[in-house]
Design goal:
Blueprint: H1 3-15, E1 20-23, H2 24-38, E2 42-46, H3 62-66, E3 71-73, H4 78-90, E4 94-98, H5 109-116, H6 119-122, E5 132-137, H7 152-156, E6 162-164, H8 169-180, E7 186-191, E8 198-201, E9 213-216, E10 221-225, H9 229-241, E11 247-251, E12 254-256, H10 260-270, E13 273-280, H11 285-297, E14 306-310, H12 321-324, H13 328-340
Parallel strand pairs: 2-3, 2-4, 5-7, 6-7, 10-11, 10-13, 13-14
Antiparallel strand pairs: 1-8, 6-12, 9-11
Helix pairs in contact: 2-8, 4-5, 9-13, 10-11
Amino acid sequence: MSKSTTAILEAAAATETPSVKLSMQQALNRALDEILSTDPKTVVFGEDCGQLGGVFRITDGLQAKHGESRVFDTPLAESGILGMSVGLAMAGFHPIPEVQFDGFAYPAINQIVCQIARMNYRSRGTLPMPITLRVPSFGGIRAPEHHGESLEALFAHVPGLKVVSPSDPHDAYHLLKFAASRPDPVIFMEPKSRYWQKGDVDASDGGTLTGARIVRPGRHLTLVAWGAMVARCMQVAELAAEDGIDVEVLDLRWLKPIDAEALATSVGKTRRAVVVHEAPLTSGLGAEVAQLITQSCFDTLKAPVERVTGFDVPYPSGDLEDEYIPNIDRILLGIQRVLEYRRG
């Protein structure tokens, strides 16, 4: 754990503060430190995860504290990282590998889909895969090509995998610890553009760690999002409120399994919905969310479910991200289309 994070925690303990202000990077670092401390079978590894502490410093200080056999570097070979994870899980360990950037996961798709996702099923439950794959995900940091992707639909489509994406430091801390305690493989998609966002983290109370959560209640329309888009939808809701539009923001969190009940409850109340995600429109996870909403709320919906997404092009790099990622204006236009919809 980094000295800055340790100092923050020690200061909080001295004042008996129930929560501390941490960035998402610090919250994830703390969660990994506590997982390693309590579970001797946990191992953390990936490209530059050892001495350097990862390209985003999520594993900063963990090798020095827990040793080179528990936190270590790997070669630049994602198929090897995930293949080794399978062997470690079969041997009784709890691997927490990191794929340095989401776009680097493609070379390991065979291991993820054909081994990690299927081994428990193939072995009739004798070989569970308690692997938590950390994937710095989505765009927003102006990185080169292949350093920003939105792969949730790909992972969510694979039977045997669970997929989760936190949107703030508190959830990042608790959801990572929860995911690491599961007997099943979990794809943990970290919104890299939010690593430096600070927020209150109450280590003693994680709340409900399964399903979605309402981060802003409203009456007129539900915005559904996950990861980095939750914060953007919160900005949109504040702007919409200036025009008298009361928007509810639902953070989906778990992308597999999706909390269909939370969707039905929220949209059943507001009767309108807009789904926001960074991935391309066609076959994006928003289509599945829209179908779940339509299935449960068809009789009461006042308008078709709207989707505001990335475009059907490869995820761009650098400055083009600003044109690709759903921005405030595009989301507001989506809200306007839903509110102005009239049948016939």
